[in-house]
Specification:
By secondary structure, this protein is of the alpha+beta class. Helix content is about 20%, strand content about 30%. Strands 1, 2, 3, 4, 5, 6, 7 and 8 form an 8-stranded antiparallel sheet that branches.
C-alpha cells in the first residue's frame, strides 16, 4: 500500500453499516465503542472503527480506523487519534513520551520498513479530549454527516465547557 492509496482510503465517503452502541461499554480498565463503515457507490471498501478510553485516566484514549481489504490481505490501521499516554515515539518528541494529543497515520515508509503501518505520529492541537477527538476523527475519515448525527449524537454534543480546538481551521 502506497501513500496515495492511504490518502484515497481515508478520503472515501463512508456510511455506518454496523452502528456503535449508544453508550460506551466498560470492559475492565477501559470504555469502548466499535462500529463498521463501508464506502458506498460501487467501491464497497470495508472498515472497522474503534474507540477506547481508559476509565481511570480519561485523557488516555485512542480512536482509529482499520481498512479491511476484500482480497484476503491483512487489515491495516490507517489512522489513530490518541490522547496523551506513556509510550515513546521519537517523531513527536525525541526527549519525552507521548505527553500530548497526537495522530498516527499509516505510511508507506512504515509498511516498507516492516513496521506497523501507523507507527509514526505527529502532535496535534485539533483535540484535547475524547469528544473533540471523535469529532475530528469522523470528519477526517469522511463519515456521512447524517450518520454522524444519527449514531454519535452524545459524542458530538457540545457542552458549555467544550473548547473550540481546531474548529476554525
Amino acid at each position: 500500500m502506497n501513500d496515495a492509496e492511504i490518502v484515497r482510503l481515508l478520503a472515501l465517503p463512508k456510511r455506518v453499516t454496523e452502528p456503535p452502541s449508544k453508550t460506551w461499554k466498560e470492559e475492565g480498565i477501559q470504555r469502548r465503542k466499535d462500529f463498521r463503515l463501508e464506502s458506498p457507490g460501487g467501491s464497497g471498501e470495508q472498515f472497522r472503527a474503534f474507540a477506547r478510553q481508559n476509565v481511570a485516566f480519561p485523557e488516555n484514549f485512542s480512536i482509529g480506523l482499520e481498512y479491511e481489504p476484500q482480497d484476503g490481505q491483512d487489515a491495516t490501521i490507517l489512522i489513530r487519534c490518541n490522547g496523551p499516554h506513556g509510550d515513546f515515539n521519537g517523531e513527536i518528541s525525541p526527549d519525552k513520551p507521548h505527553f500530548h494529543p497526537h495522530v498516527h497515520k499509516a505510511s508507506s515508509r512504515a509498511i516498507d520498513n516492516g513496521e506497523r503501518a501507523e507507527k509514526y505520529a505527529t502532535r496535534t492541537d485539533e483535540f484535547v479530549d475524547v469528544k473533540q477527538a471523535m469529532r475530528f476523527f469522523l470528519k477526517t475519515v469522511n463519515v456521512n454527516a447524517e450518520d454522524q448525527d444519527r449514531y454519535f449524537e452524545e459524542d458530538l454534543r457540545r457542552t458549555l465547557f467544550d473548547e473550540e480546538i481546531g474548529e476554525s481551521k
